[in-house]
Each structure stands twice: as C-alpha cells, then as structure tokens.
Amino acid sequence: MAAREPPKVTQSRFRRECERLCKEPPRLPILAVQACPPGNRLRADIVGPDDSPFAGHRFGLLVEAGNEYPFKPPAIRFASPRRVYHPNVCSQSGGICLDILNDANLWSPALGLEKLLISVASLLSEPRTEHGLNSEALELLRRDAGAYAARASAVAARESSTSSSAASAPRRGTAEIETTVAAAPKPAADTAVRGQGVLGRDDASRQDGHAAAIEQITPPTTTVVGEGGTAAVTARRDRVEPVDRSGVCWVAFAIAIIAIGVAQRISSGE
After folding, report:
1. Ranges assigned E (strand) in the chain
2. Is residue 250 packed enough to be buried (19+ CB in 10 Å), middle (13-18) or exposed (0-12)?
C-alpha cells in the first residue's frame, strides 16, 4: 500500500529542513541526512557522544513528520534498536522516550529537525532515570551505573562489529573469480603428463610470454596441446603406431642366405 501523501504545509517545511541538512556539511553529532519519499521522512546518522558508553559508534535514526508538523514533533526511532542498550530506548521498536517528544508544552516549531537529532544524541549520554522503555537497562543503571555503562558499551561494540563485518565483506565479481580459477594449480594428472613431454594448457591462460618460455623448456618432440590437455594426449597416443620391423629382418636374412650360396659356388669352382 502506497504511503499517504502529507499536507502541503508539512511537506514544504520538512523539505526545506531536509534540503538544508543535506546541502550543508553536517555538524556533530549529526553525520549524514538522507530524505526519503513521500516527502515527510528522512534517515539520519548520528555518532555517540564522547562522554557516553556509545562513544564513537554510529547509529541510524528514522524520522517521520505527521500531518501537524511542525506544530507537533515528528515520530523518531532508532533504526537498529538492538545496538542501543539504554533505559529510554525500546529494545524492540527503537522508540525513544524524550521530554520534547512526549510533552506538547516542551515542543516548539522553532526546534526543527536538527535540534531534535542533537537532543537524541544528548540523551545517549544523559539517560532519564524517572521512567524508561527498557526496564532492564533502567534497573541496572539505578543499581550500578558502572555496570550499566560497561553493558551498554559492550552491546554497541558487539552489534557494530557484526554489522560492519557483514557490510564490508568483499564480494567477488565474475572477473575476479575467473582470474582465480585460471591461476589455480593444475591437477596431479597434468603434472604426470608434463613428465612425458606433453604440456596441456587452457586457451585463456596462454600468452605470448609464456609461449616463449615453453619453447625453451619443452623437448623437441613435445607437442603443445590446446584445451582438454589429457584428452588430447590420449588422442595423440592413439595416432602413434609402432613400426613393424619384421620385414627388414626377413630381407636381411634372405641376403645372408644368398651370400652364403654365392660363397659356396665360388669355393666349388676353385
């Protein structure tokens, strides 16, 4: 189902703010902003504050302005809630418990999107302990602030490293795979054939420089066969027929008999 188009007022204000945030270089803690259709949505990336367990980690935020924006705050949530172990962040939906979002008297149209993103980043270093959306994190923070900070930092680091490894994993293209296959060592059967003086090579790996080297190391009787080296060697062996030397032996034997007979006649004449 297609998203419902927001009112013109909301679109105009939201579009102006998005264009400004996308056009101007972002200011920390904001790292990047990207507008999303149908004109009242955006994705923003922020970095965890230095004085928080989330320092140095990047977090995505999804923002959607309602029909009454900018007179009412937009909806905002974390894109990957599992990475945020925080009392005021829902670990399931990524929803955020922030005073300017929940109290209509604290929100003002003058705040806008940029200040809202900065407020969310500040919440990471200044959690509210009066109430929360993650009861486990809230209880741990109330009981032992040091243990909470260690747990939040470990969760952010573990989830961040997992996501980064999956995203940065190299993808081998077709050309790279073909190069790897061509460079793979020949099987043992091919090595045995080389010892007999026949070298099998793929057309894809035959180059001028290699041909010159082959001519120097290949015996004079060696034949360089194209693709299908082993099959070509078999065919070559089938065409080589042994020389029948029995006829030569019979001729030599006949000549010897004639020579003996001539010698006997000469002796008898004498």
Report:
1. 30-36, 41-47, 58-64, 75-78, 199-200, 224-225
2. exposed
* Dihedral in degrees, nearest 10, Cα atoms 101, 106, 112, 114: -70
| Contact by Cβ (8 Å): 66, 14 | no
Sheet containing 41-47: give its strands across: 30-36, 41-47, 58-64, 75-78
Smallest CA-to-CA distance from 193 within 162, 216, 224 is with 224
CA atoms 65, 69, 70, 72: torsion sign:
negative
What pLDDT digit, counting tens, does each position of 31-65 carry? 999 988 888 899 999 999 999 999 999 999 999 99
19/128 Cα distance (integer angstroms): 32
Cβ proximity of 121 and 46 under 8 Å: yes
| Catalytic member of 18, 22, 36, 97 | 97
Is the Cβ–Cβ distance between 6 and 39 less than 8 Å? yes
Angle at CA of residue 138, ends 136 and 99, nearest 5°: 130
**Residues 88 and 98: beta-carbon distance below 8 Å:** yes
Largest pairwise CA distance in the chain: 152
Q: Could you tell me where the DSSP H helices lie in 4-144?
A: 8-23, 99-102, 112-125, 135-143
90 tagged catalytic:
no
Residue 229 has pLDDT above 50, yes or no: no
Given pLDDT bands bounded at 50, 70 and 90, which one contains residue 9? low
Amino acid at 98: L
